Amino acid sequence: MRYHRADVVERAVEVLDRHGLADLSMRRLGAELGVQPSALYHHFTDKQTLLAAIADEILQRAAWPTSGDWIERVGAICATLRDAVLAYRDGAELVATVQAFGLGGRQPYDLLLAALHDGGLGDLAPVAARTLLHYVYGHAVDEQTHLQAAAAGAIADEPREVEDFGVGLGIVIAGLQVVHAARR
């Protein structure tokens, strides 16, 4: 059977969610699809390109906010990003890595940049967008690692409080508001 690129990405997301990033290989994906791993290179030049496509697919599945003032949009974009990456096993690590390497995952950055520009942050907007992404990805990777370690019995901790994310995000956004007001 001949697969289209979208079919391969769809199955790769499923493999990621079932087995995790460490066990997502071209060999495993090929076996899942019933093809030789070399057949996947028809759609992707290398594994990094495949990982970028998976990250973009995870992000495209999210319902991104488009309304509200800039502060509301920034908060909603960050919350949506957190939920999107936590919806898949190792999703936070994958999307953060792909974005850091500049291979994909630009959608949240672009949305944050637009909201911050709408808020009048000007030349501060790119740094603010990256800072927000660092916060979201760092928190999500920490949260996902904690949940997976607890599920595997490696730690005995209870799941962490979700409010922790919102409080921290509020601190970062409040800091942006203070800096923005001081620059006026």
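Above is the first protein from milestone M3; the second protein from the same milestone is given next.
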Amino acid sequence: MNLTPKQLKILQLIRDSRVRHGYSPTMQELADQLNVSKVTVFEHVEALIKKGALVREANKARSLSIADGIAVPDEDRPMKFPLVGKIAAGYPIEKLEDREELDVRDLFAPRTGRFSGAPGAGGGGGAFALRVEGDSMKDEGIFDGDFVIIERTETARNGDRVVALLPDGQTTLKTFFKESDHIRLQPANAAFEPIRVKDCKIQGIVVGVLRRY
């Protein structure tokens, strides 16, 4: 898809807002972040809708979402992922919105010397990293202090390990199960009870776990 740099940035901002907050930014918020006029943002958004990259629900605020099948890459920085905060693998906690990055080269490189990197490895395709706090997922090999690599998505299947935004605004890392009248977010530690909610927003699915000894 042929996108201008500004259009790509708008897609990234919308995607990141939906991951962090569960909703898309307003036109004014996009304009403020891009340092352009609201009219300019509106023109870019309309162009993205016509290109099939964005979807908007009529007469509903904050309803912009990335169209199905559209992958929004991060900046081309091999083996580097935006580190957007911490995730509770225990009782839910508020997820921080740190503006840091997790560079896999730094994480696994020797403490002295250089790491050559891996050809073809990358943090594109809409992935981000979270630092795990707590041990409710330890029986699946996800421990306190680990980093989880998350693929951004708003849907999940039963058995997926997900980052879920709960109705009270907190986030948690659990295994997702859609049951008859509710969603069960299942820990992997007998000391913890499942979280049961009528609904939640999926912010991503775990695709990798990183640990340094």
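Note on the second protein: Residues 80-210 form a domain with the Umud Fragment, subunit A fold (CATH 2.10.109.10).
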